[in-house]
Amino acid sequence: MYEPKPEHKFTFGLWTVGNIGRDPFGEPVRTTLSPVDIVHLLAEVGAYGVNFHDNDLVPIDATPAERDKIVAGFKKALAETGLVAPMATTNLFSDPVFRDGAFTSNDPRVRAFALQKTMRAMDLGAELGAKIYVFWGGREGTETDAGKDPLEAGKWFREALNFLCEYNLDQGYGMKFALEAKPNEPRGDIYLPTTGAMLGFIATLNHPEMVGVNPEVAHEHMAGLNFMHAVAQAWDAGKLFHIDLNDQKFGRYDQDFRFGAESIKQAFYLVKFLEEVGYEGSRHFDAHAYRTADLADVKEFARGCMRTYLILKEKALQFRADKEIQALLAEIKADDGSMHPYFGPYTKDKADALKAHAFDRVAMGQRGLPYEKLDQLLIELLLGVR
Questions:
Q1: Model confidence pTM above 0.85
Q2: Of 242, 248, 268, 382, which cross-links 214 as Cys (Cβ 3.0–4.6 Å)?
């Protein structure tokens, strides 16, 4: 019942199940897996697709011949397993050249190199069939604002995206760009730190129709924000092009836990929202197994991400079918129709009538709402006692 199927569109990045368990305080604990090995591992656990940064697949210093050989092997693994590569992105944060950012670096040579690297990575993504291209500005920020003007940096970032949108059109790739926000880490402050900030920025681009967002659970939770609300805003704006699923303790460093591992109620609301609005994109798990995991446990981590999503999808159906819960919601949203004439498009007559209406403010303020009971019923549903 909770086995993943292709229609669920569950995807993982090469960097997720391929994570070797290194952290700032410890050396690797797992053996490096090749991209081909990762494809076969994901096929074994039932994933639909695999996503990648350019250098997850092709080392940054690979020769053209080495690049072609690696890509051919990767294509062969995809063909053998039936997996797809729906999303690609560029690593603009690991190499020392990006120590002060990529598109927002103070060095114009670095900004130009970042454009070159991204165009080549877009070529690679297109070759492998990717139609979503994600931009995460991991080094686009500062530790001290003494060194960089945020207006100038914003202008450089805008120029870069405008340039790459034109490249996308010129090459006929048909890609959609998805911008991924994060408040901090690895920089002290990262520009455009939240999904809402990204949505505002997109409106300033030359091709806003081509650019959306890729919100991530952990990144919004790092800032103490409600992730589902950010996703709803992106959906309402028609900009939810991709999504990164994982989990995170609020206010901590970027933990990238297994989906549902920490905040099960928030995960439920998210799955419920995605399923009810009919989101058709990939459910991408940008998460890592615990550092304690061996290869067998990494596979359980991947299975767990998908299984939890499917369990919560079933719980969302139960929520909609629960008569007591739905009766409470009907009570909360009770509408006798008396206010309908005042809503909708503005007219002068409507405004005059609304200004003249006598509201019983005291009575309205005395109405209680059974949110405590509703929330308890949800908890009982999630705990499996309803």
A1: yes
A2: 242
Q: At residue 380, does pLDDT exceed 90? A: yes
Instruction: Give Cα separations from 11 to 30, 137, 150, 257, 333 (angstroms).
Output: 22, 21, 35, 16, 37
Residue ranges of alpha helices (H) inside the chain are 14-17, 35-45, 54-57, 64-81, 108-127, 150-171, 195-202, 217-222, 227-236, 264-277, 295-321, 323-332, 348-356, 361-365, 371-382
3-class state of residue 52 by DSSP: strand
Pairing verdict, β 141-142 and 211-213: unpaired
Q: What is the DSSP string of 373-384?
A: HHHHHHHHHHTT
Q: Are strands 176-180 and 132-136 parallel, antiparallel or unpaired?
A: parallel
The stretch 183-196 carries a mean pLDDT of: 98
Residue 59 has pLDDT above 90, yes or no: yes
- Give the three-state DSSP class for 56: helix
Angle made by CA atoms 338, 342, 346, in degrees to the nearest 5: 165
Q: Each residue of 120-134: pLDDT tens digit? A: 999 999 999 999 999
Residues designated catalytic: 53, 56
pLDDT tens per residue across span 342-371 = 999 999 999 999 999 999 999 999 999 999
- Nearest CA among 206, 135, 234, 139 for reference residue 177: 135
Degrees (nearest 5) of the Cα angle 345, 350, 351?
100
Indicate whether 1 pLDDT > 90. Answer: no
pLDDT of 100 reads 98
CA triple 359-364-367, angle to 5 deg: 165
